[in-house]
Amino acid sequence: MIELEGLPELVDPVLIAAFEGWNDAGEASSGVIAHLENEWKAEPLIALDPEDYYDFQVTRPIVEMGDGLTRSIVWPTTRLSLARPPGLERDVVLLRGIEPNMRWRGFCDELVGIAHELGIELTVMLGALLNDSPHTRPVPIVGSATDDGLARSINLELTRYEGPTGIVGVLQHAFGAAGLRAISLWASVPHYVAQPPNPKATLALLRRVEDVLEIPVPLGDLVEESRAWENGVDELASQDSEVAEYVKELEERKDAAELPEASGDAIAAEFERYLRRRDTDTGDQ
């Protein structure tokens, strides 16, 4: 357990977390944390001791070159940083980690202890999975929550998945068992275009984070990158008749399953985001 001394006093902090690896198809969820760290100028807060949770023959350290011939070793671990977004009357703790190789229960206990120490009561877990979703349609976001009211407040489609899980599912359960409100948001990444990055899925997760925080989140170049990604996949699919036919089949299946009320909820959510952004732009003038 790391020593938690000299930490700043936080204002009603919320934790947003993502892990590289099994939980991170297309690097969509870790991409959210990287984006927010950059946009909100997050400052390093805590790093867990990697000796306790990682097998360095499986998750190897990285050597980096500095000035001249100097070298440094970057050890794989889980790091927390602090952001103070403008317009949000609370602090945000961003967690970016690598799924641990061992001692998951101890890993979760340590993060629960850190959350309690920092005064965190709400945690947002992010993940991405491979699915048979067409790349031409909006990215489906499903999830689960320890608080039904929280899920309803953002019109989250709740998953009833049963089966193998990753550290995102285990840590969400640990947060809930410790009395913290925890919600998970999962983006569906097309399995036929799984290679990272996937800016469209990252953008979809960011918009749902925006719904939870109830403030506009800076999108940077993600909107343009998302369009470019989709256009690139369109071009690749058009060069292979079998892939193009498969995408068309997925589109038809998706459109047939789309419920009118679900589409209405999506339109309402997008309108609420528009109003938040308009209010923020007006306030900046």
UniProtKB/TrEMBL annotation:
Pfam families: PAC2. The keyword Nucleotidyltransferase does not apply. Keywords: Proteasome. Gene3D superfamilies: PAC-like subunit (3.40.50.10900). It comes from Nonomuraea dietziae. InterPro entries: Proteasome_assmbl_chaperone_2, PSMG2_sf, Rv2714-like. One of its GO terms (cellular component) is proteasome complex. Signal peptide: none annotated. This is Proteasome assembly chaperone (PAC2) family protein.
